[in-house]
Design brief:
Layout (H helix, E strand, L loop, with lengths): L4 E4 L8 E7 L3 H6 L2 E3 L9 E9 L2 E11 L10 E7 L2 H13 L3 E2 L4 H8 L5 H12 L3 H11 L2 H25 L11 H30 L1 E6 L6 H9 L17 E7 L2 E7 L9 H16 L2 E7 L6 H9 L5 E6 L17 E3 L9 H10 L2 H4 L10 H22 L4 H19 L5 H8 L7
Parallel strand pairs: 1-7, 8-10, 8-11, 11-12, 12-13
Antiparallel strand pairs: 1-2, 2-6, 3-4, 4-5, 5-6, 9-10
Length: 451
């Protein structure tokens, strides 16, 4: 944190401009040593200065230099941004010049990491930065902006303040029982407070599932035995010929992926290799990969052939997917019916064919119905948006539940206090009040270098 970092903050390639960003106590000094123009050390904060970047008296490029002095910057450190002409050669040469004069190449997300460590933003806001960059639809972008503006952080802080007040009251009653003018916190009062907080936290967790769905989309895996029409369904959903379609069994030997937007929600579709018993080594690997994909899917689309009788492979697939969120597709409904599934108590069945885009309309409508996509959009974006946040919220909820159980079992107040403190700490981890270096390294590793 005592050194000065530098990175290219725009996409490297042909473009109108490129931006090289520096942050640290020597940022202005380093750039000034390579700048032909106004003395940047005397420049006013938040000004743009015209000149040239030079190296050994040789002009590298004509530039505009933005000087932003601490603490009113993204990282709260001195920040300098060099705006040069777009292009790989000049951009890289300026970066190399900054490195030669004492800057260090930034790690992925290190500018945002410094903003967090310096107290400018919390961990939720840090995650919102990368969410804005990675937003795949307008709703996901709105959620990320809401988090960046502090709505989610304020919600967690408000929740922790309630816990803090309850814990303080318990501490006073434990430490100073002789003071009768202090409100006595009875177990009934604690039970009531815990019940209210449990309801609030449960609501947050449940409604946060919608925001993760909006942000990350629905991971949809299409499975079935060979030649039932999985690849054709994928192509019709994507409205392009992405997967190879033949009447030869085992054509698809690896996963084929694509995305569509359904009612504003991203559908991440994966077409898998046909599942069947086979001695072909390559096809066998594809089948094993198909089976493994089922476990990670949000939705499994099981495809059966309307024109063929149910096989042992079909039955195994139905058994394998029975505990998953599932749609059973009876494909090729334009052909004579030979399939009989009456002995199975199957739900969410749709009939399709892939002769036209309209042929899979029933499948799209069933997905919309199953995930209630028409009702999923909300004007309230104050919820948790990723697995880390939701996992910690669930841990906090379980600690509240344990505290409630302790109250009901008439355990001593100081033991119940431990569970309430655990709840407080788990919520603190969401916004980064407590954290480990390992968590930070993992979180910021997903950022681009210049952010």
């Amino acid at each position: 944190m005592n050194d000065t970092i530098v990175a290219i903050s725009t996409a490297l390639g042909v473009g109108a401009i490129s931006i090289i960003r520096l942050s640290g106590k020597d940022a202005i000094k380093i750039v000034n040593n390579c700048f032909k123009g106004k003395d940047l050390t005397t420049a006013e904060s938040h000004t743009i200065n015209y000149g040239h970047i030079i190296d050994k008296n040789q002009i590298i490029d004509e530039v505009l230099i933005s000087v932003m002095k601490a603490p009113k910057t993204y990282t709260t450190e001195d920040v300098v941004e060099i705006n040069c002409h777009g292009g790989v050669i000049s951009t890289k040469r300026i970066l190399e010049t900054m490195l030669t004069h004492g800057a260090r190449l930034a790690e992925p997300g290190e500018f945002t990491k410094r903003a967090f460590l310096n107290g400018r933003i919390d961990l939720v806001k840090s995650e919102a930065v990368i969410d804005i960059i990675n937003s795949k639809n307008e709703e996901a972008n709105k959620i990320a902006l809401s988090q960046l503006n502090g709505s989610t952080s304020n919600m967690i802080k408000k929740f922790r303040n309630k816990l803090k007040q309850l814990l303080a009251s318990i501490e006073v009653n434990i430490d100073y029982p002789e003071y009768y003018d202090i409100e006595v916190v009875t177990k009934d009062n604690i039970r009531k407070s815990i019940k209210e907080m449990k309801m609030d936290l449960d609501k947050i967790i449940k409604e946060s599932k919608n925001t993760t769905l909006i942000k990350e989309g629905i991971k949809t895996v299409i499975v079935g035995r060979p030649n039932v029409g999985k690849s054709s369904i994928l192509n019709k959903l994507l409205e392009q010929d992405k997967a190879i379609v033949t009447n030869i069994a085992g054509t698809t030997r690896d996963i084929v992926e694509g995305e569509i937007c359904l009612d504003g929600i991203i559908l991440n579709i994966i077409d898998t290799a046909g599942i069947r018993s086979t001695n072909d080594i390559v096809e066998k690997i594809g089948v094993e990969k198909s089976l493994s994909m089922i476990d990670d899917a949000d939705l499994v689309v099981v495809v059966l052939n309307n024109n063929e009788e149910l096989t042992m492979d079909d039955e195994e697939i139905l058994e394998k997917t029975k505990r998953k969120q599932r749609i059973v597709v009876i494909n090729k409904n334009d052909l004579s019916k030979k399939l009989d599934i009456s002995k199975y108590n199957l739900k969410n069945i749709v009939e399709t064919n892939t002769n036209t885009v309209e042929g899979i309309k029933n499948l799209k409508e069933k997905i919309i119905e199953l995930f209630e996509l028409e009702n999923i959009k909300t004007k309230d974006y104050t919820y948790l948006t990723n697995a880390r946040q939701i996992s910690l919220a669930k841990k906090a909820y379980l600690s509240l539940k344990e505290a409630e159980t302790g109250i009901n079992n008439d355990l001593p107040i100081d033991m119940i206090e431990i569970d309430l403190k655990n709840t407080f700490d788990f919520l603190g981890e969401i916004i980064g009040e407590t954290y480990s270096e390992e968590i930070l390294d993992h979180l910021f590793a997903n950022f681009c270098v210049g952010k």
